[in-house]
């Protein structure tokens, strides 16, 4: 007895029907393959757009992060921390004047001289550090841009433009940034961060 699973072997098939069935099967396979390829193409572009949004939002290895990533990882993977973090990240630094400042794993963003450095996570949250008179600045390996340091000092109010010009060799953009920040750090101790 014949069934769909066991067709009757004696039943003769029309060759045209067999050919049409093979053509239909081939066309269906092509449609399935084209649909799968189309889905993979969409998946690829969704992943690319997702990565672009992630990069713009949080950044990758210190780049990007324009929306929420107001941070940059330190070179050795350590996190910058200490009591001076609030003062450095504050838009208004005046309330922190005469407060103790202590930070570890702080990136040096710029070096003005052997006694003047710009520190911070990125260029949007920078703060000037001035080494006090008792701090050595003639180390065999000087501190340079990109180095990580530990800083102990005090937050001081920015002096007048005339005083700044007499005391520190700042450029016009540096002077404008210092005036905008309203405060700087007088460092009693600045040393290499242990790695």
Task: Describe the structure in brief.
The chain is an alpha+beta fold. It contains four helices and five strands. It has two domains: 58 residues; 108 residues, Nucleic acid-binding proteins (OB fold (Dihydrolipoamide Acetyltransferase, E2P)).
Tally of DSSP helical segments: 4
Report the sheet-strand fraction: 15-25%
Shape: rod-shaped
Q: Could you name the CATH class of the largest domain? A: Mainly Beta
Summarize the SSE layout with pairings:
Elements: H1 15-57, H2 85-89, E1 100-111, E2 116-120, E3 126-131, E4 148-157, H3 161-167, H4 172-181, E5 183-192
Parallel strand pairs: 3-5
Antiparallel strand pairs: 1-2, 1-4, 2-3, 4-5
Task: Please give a structural write-up.
The chain is an alpha+beta fold. It folds into two domains: 12-69; 85-192, Beta Barrel (OB fold (Dihydrolipoamide Acetyltransferase, E2P)). 33% of the residues lie in helices and 22% in strands. The protein is built from four helices and five strands. It has helices spanning 15-57, 85-89, 161-167, 172-181, and strands at 100-111, 116-120, 126-131, 148-157, 183-192. It has a five-stranded mixed beta barrel with strand order 1-2-3-5-4. The protein starts with 14 loop residues before the first helix and ends with a strand.
Task: Name the features.
195 residues; OB fold (Dihydrolipoamide Acetyltransferase, E2P); 2 domains; 5-stranded mixed β-barrel; 33% helix; 22% strand; rod-shaped
């Amino acid at each position: 007895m014949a069934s769909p699973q066991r067709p009757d072997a004696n039943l003769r098939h029309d060759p045209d029907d067999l050919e049409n069935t093979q053509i239909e099967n081939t066309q269906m396979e092509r449609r399935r393959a084209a649909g799968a390829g189309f889905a993979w193409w969409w998946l690829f572009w969704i992943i690319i757009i997702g990565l672009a949004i992630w990069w713009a939002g949080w950044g990758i290895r210190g780049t990007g992060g324009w929306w929420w990533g107001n941070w940059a990882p330190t070179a050795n993977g350590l996190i910058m921390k200490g009591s001076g973090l609030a003062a450095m990240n504050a838009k208004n630094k005046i309330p922190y004047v005469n407060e103790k400042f202590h930070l570890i794993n702080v990136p040096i963003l710029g070096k003005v001289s052997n006694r003047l450095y710009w520190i911070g996570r990125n260029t949007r949250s920078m703060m000037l550090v001035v080494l006090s008179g008792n701090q050595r600045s003639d180390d065999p390996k000087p501190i340079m841009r990109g180095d990580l340091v530990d800083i102990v000092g005090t937050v001081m109010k920015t002096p007048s433009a005339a005083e700044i010009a007499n005391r520190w060799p700042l450029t016009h953009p540096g002077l404008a940034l210092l005036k905008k920040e309203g405060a700087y750090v007088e460092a009693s101790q600045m040393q290499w961060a242990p790695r």
